[in-house]
Structure formats: structure tokens, C-alpha cells
């Protein structure tokens, strides 16, 4: 007999960026099943149908859902996410902010351009900083901020100069915000660091989830590491990552802050 979902996030409101598919969609659906009203975010027209389908899956949970198109690199678009969250909030507050959106195109250092650098840092680093700034005036006491990092932040994989740098930066930002914002706003701030994850699109590292193709040599670089992963010789599943994030969004994680939790099956110890 199936167990009933625990509604441990009832009446809370969450924003999950990059949530039309993959890990982001899994997080948004699970938060809704736990009782949270959720803002689902997509960027491109390609993500619109997936976001609409996710909203249909959320509706039977009884939670409210708002689907918002927002380019994470555009400041004015970030405001739309905040406005949408406040519109569905039962308390006039935002309780949970999950920074999942990212772009991870491949590029060797020799081929890098300023435009390439700017495009990645705008989405992977600038957007979390300024979206959090916009949310702070509305964040609830006991609120939760979760940043999705990556094993790439620590593993030195080729072609990931900017991606690895932005993910390492998020782990640093996590510690700063835990210290700077914790007591002032009564919140916790943590990171979850997935390894390669099989999304609903294809068997790719999660860093490529938002639509870019993974170079075969990058997958080849990962394969020996995957085979040596301590928990099991496989990549992760969305269902491996979602419960970690949901825990970090819950009251049960109240004594966890400034931490990076590895969701990599031991591929990368933290």
C-alpha cells in the first residue's frame, strides 16, 4: 500500500528556477506534494510545454502553481518570479528559494570568448545573487535558500573553466549568506552538489540539463569516474537528488546551514 505524502511544507511558497524539467521539475513537484505552493520557471519556448505539463502534475496535489517565463540573465525577469510567488502565497511571504537554473556549455580555454563567459556567469552566478536580493524583503522567518552546485566545482573536468568557477562560487556564496543573512532573516542557506544525473531528456551530466549537447569526450572523461563511484557504478537519478533538496527546504534541516551536501554517490567526497 502506498504511503501518503507528508505535507511538511503546507502553506509555504517556493520559487524553483530552471524547473521545467530534470532535477528542477523533480524538486518543484516534490515540494508541491509536501504542501508548498510553487513557482515553476522556464526560459525558452522549448521549455513552455514541459512547464505546462509539470503544472498539470502539480494541480492534483492541491498546491497552487504559477508558471513563469523568465530569462535568468535579465533582471526585470527575475522580478516576475518574485511577483508570481507573492501572488500565490497564503501568507504574503516567500519561504523557499531553490536556485537550480544553470547553463553549462563546453568550451576549452583556448576557444573562450568574453560573450561565452558572460552568458554563463549571468545565469549561473549573477541570477542567484540578484534573485535572492529581490526575495529578501519578502522572505519568511524560518525560510530556506538552496543553491544547486555540481561536482564540477571540485573535480577539475576539462572544458569547464567558467561552469566549474561559477559552481565553486555558489558554494562560497552559500557560506557567506549563511553567516550574513542567517540571524538577520532567520533563514538557512545550503548547497546540494549533484554528480552526473540521468534526466528525462538523455543520459547526460546534470550540468547539460538545460539543453546544450554534451561533447563525447566529456562523457568519456566521466565514464571511469562513474564506474568507480562508491555507492554504485551508475549515474544518479533525479529521485536521488530531490529528497536531499526537500530536506534542506524543511523544518528538519533547521540546524544545517552553510553546508554543501554531496548528491554524487560518493563520486566526490565533501
Q: Your description of this structure?
A:
It is a single chain. This protein is α/β, with parallel strands linked by helices and about 270 residues long. The protein has one domain: 3-Layer(aba) Sandwich (Rossmann fold). Helices cover about 40% and strands about 20% of the residues. It contains 8 helices and 10 strands. The strands form 2 sheets. Strands 3-2-1-4-5-6-10 form a 7-stranded parallel sheet, sandwiched between helices. Strands 8-7-9 form a 3-stranded mixed sheet. α1 (about 20-35) runs parallel beside α2. It is globular, with a radius of gyration of 17 Å. The model is unreliable at about 200-215 (pLDDT under 50).
Write the layout of secondary structure elements.
Layout: E1 13-16, H1 22-33, E2 37-42, H2 45-58, E3 65-69, H3 75-88, E4 94-99, H4 114-135, E5 139-148, H5 152-155, H6 161-185, E6 188-194, E7 197-198, E8 203-204, H7 216-227, E9 236-237, H8 238-248, E10 260-263
Parallel strand pairs: 1-2, 1-4, 2-3, 4-5, 5-6, 6-10, 7-9
Antiparallel strand pairs: 7-8
Helix pairs in contact: 1-2, 1-8, 3-4, 4-6
Keywords:
NADP, 8 helices, 7-stranded parallel β-sheet, single chain, Rossmann fold, alpha/beta, 10 strands, 3-stranded mixed β-sheet, 270 residues, 18% strand
How would you concisely characterize the structure shown here?
By secondary structure, the chain is of the alpha/beta class.
| Uncertain runs | 201-215
Q: How many β strands by DSSP?
A: 10
Strand and helix order: EHEHEHEHEHHEEEHEHE
Biggest sheet statistics:
7 strands, parallel
Structural class of the secondary structure composition?
Answer: alpha/beta
User: Can you tell me the overall shape?
Assistant: globular
Count of runs of 4 or more consecutive helical residues = 8
The CATH architecture designation is: 3-Layer(aba) Sandwich
GO biological process, one term: fatty acid biosynthetic process
Organism: Phialocephala subalpina
Pfam families: adh_short_C2
Keywords: NADP, Oxidoreductase
